[in-house]
Design goal:
This protein has 12 helices and no strands. The longest helix is centred in the last third of the chain and has 23 residues.
Length: about 220
């Protein structure tokens, strides 16, 4: 695909304005703020960095790559298997809600570009990184560029949630986003040759936060 067209599409698909409802999800961050794990700029940066390297976004990166490769090569059975694996890997009810709701919304919103290709999922809910990877694969967008844009959008959403919850000022949020740039590039590089056997993580506080959030009394976010 022409680089200019690819860039335009990535900016559209992963823009906060693309109707996936990402603003409603905090990836457990809301409970982490409530519990005192995240109290300011430094702890928010560290938390997001850990989610990238050791938490849900690490697995999302690998799943996106494998979904994109399967779609690009026309291996639809393999793509559906990756989608099933992604759904099975969710560690809690809210993690499952977060990825399947956004993924399904992405499939619906991407119809002007997908031209029916995402019907491969048969209308079943699909995890967000798998949906993005599949569309990018069918349309032959550069894999590293897709993943970098996906991870950037995901961390930007976390930072946005942090601004509202801690709360932080806009300048602090921008410093967090800037500080995460090396981590984004590192995860893209580290997952380039990662197999599905490298899925998983050790960001236990993040996963427990997602579980605790299910019964949090007062909350702004769905997860």
């Amino acid at each position: 695909m022409d680089d200019g067209i690819a860039l335009l599409r990535l900016m559209t698909w992963l823009s906060p304005a693309f109707p996936t409802g990402g603003f409603a999800y905090s990836h457990g961050l809301e409970w982490s703020v409530e519990a005192g794990d995240i109290t300011g700029e430094t702890t928010l940066t560290d938390w997001a960095d850990d989610v990238l390297h050791h938490g849900g976004l690490w697995s999302d990166a690998i799943l996106l790559r494998h979904a994109q490769r399967a779609a690009k090569s026309g291996r639809d059975d393999e793509l559906r298997a990756v989608a099933a694996l992604a759904a099975a890997l969710t560690a809690s009810a809210e993690r499952r809600l977060e990825t399947l709701a956004q993924g399904t919304a992405f499939v619906m919103a991407a119809k002007p570009w997908a031209c029916g290709k995402l019907d491969v999922f048969g209308g079943a809910p699909v995890a967000y990184p798998v949906a993005v990877g599949a569309l990018a694969g069918y349309l032959v967008v550069d894999e590293d560029a897709v993943l970098l844009a996906f991870l950037h959008a995901a961390t930007a959403n976390l930072v946005s949630a942090g601004l509202r919850l801690i709360p932080l000022g806009q300048d602090a949020g921008l410093r967090v986003q800037a500080a995460l740039e090396p981590a984004l590039l590192a995860v893209v590089a580290a997952t380039k040759n990662a197999g599905l056997d490298e899925l998983g993580g050790a960001a236990w506080r993040s996963e427990i936060a997602a579980m605790k959030h299910e019964t949090q009394y007062t909350r702004l976010f769905r997860t």
